[in-house]
Amino acid sequence: MNRRAFLESAACLASAACLSGAEGPLRTHAAAHGLLYGAATAYGPLQNDPDYSAHLAAECNLLVPENVLKWTTVHPAPERFDFVPGDFLAHFAAAHDMRMRGHTLVWHEQLPRWFASTVTKQNARARLEEHIRTVMGHYRGRMHSWDVVNEAIRPQDGRADGLRQTPWLDLLGPEYLEIAYATAAEADPQALAGYNDYGLDYHTPEDEAKRNAVLGLLRRLKKQNVPVQAFGMQAHLSAGRQPTFQPETLRRFLGEVAGLGLKILITELDVSDAGLPDDAESRDRAVAAVYENYLTAALAEPAVVAVLTWGLTDKYTWLASRNRRPDGSPVRVLPLDHEFHRKPAWYAIAKALDTRR
Ligand code: XIL
Fold first, then answer.
1. Which CATH number covers residue 119?
2. Count of domains for the chain
3. Which of 75, 88, 183, 189 has the fewest CB atoms within 10 Å around its CB?
4. How far is the CA of 66 from the centre of ligand 1 (A)?
């Protein structure tokens, strides 16, 4: 497909005339209730698979790079930044009337190999500030929000403040969070500065401890006037864990986060089908039920402004390698299947978005 035909097909799929009513794309369901719906996208498929790109543009009004704004890609050498992939995604988003969000500036994973040998206690603060200024500055005024800090809490690491043992904590102490948010606020005052984390979804002692530790962190930051403005709930769910999901627990937690004056985004939603029976129909039903129950509970919280799935189609999902099925059959974890057909999960998300007041 040439570029023009591709853009036209994407525009058609996105237009209300092409698909209307209940069959309209998720971005329309979301927008009708003042919400954004988006998906994480990898660079390769967006460059090479026009059908995929057309569906992404059709369904989403928010886009987040799955990997290309992480340190490994965007900061490949100490004195070099690479914005080619990120810019490709940013242009795609702008061309299709989608907002974009940034992921992520401070994280203990996907750090480049040079990091450990180059960043020291002496230069860590300057390196962190430079990274945030350069990367956020490059997209200044164009981002809906940024995951400024990702996954900073891990109660099992045994610290009273719940902070995870990470290179940033080793280098700078707990102050790394304040440094990051202060630098972010200057680098792009228009982007919502977020804190993003996982493992907060279930009614289990482990998730409860993590919820408490995350709330503790957010309270401390707010009390110190650290400019954190949004909370990202990753929401990597598992259909096999359904019995430990309690809507009330989720609502209470999101209510407490909202009470701190933070906007909330569901940032990385997907539903693993690990451990479910092989037959696709019953798997799809179970996965869809999880999407619907979770989102219906989450969207009851008025502070929630956006829902993003971590991928759009089962053709491209990190769970394909992470949760390989014993029978070798493809995972069925996202709204669209391998051929981009809508699955029960798609309808479950549409329904949950529709119930938002
Ligand atoms: C994952 C990507 O999906 C993979 O492609 C990559 O290999 C590892 O990272 N939490 C996050 C995301 O914040 O950045 C992670 O993304 C998934 C878990």
1. 3.20.20.80
2. 1
3. 189
4. 7
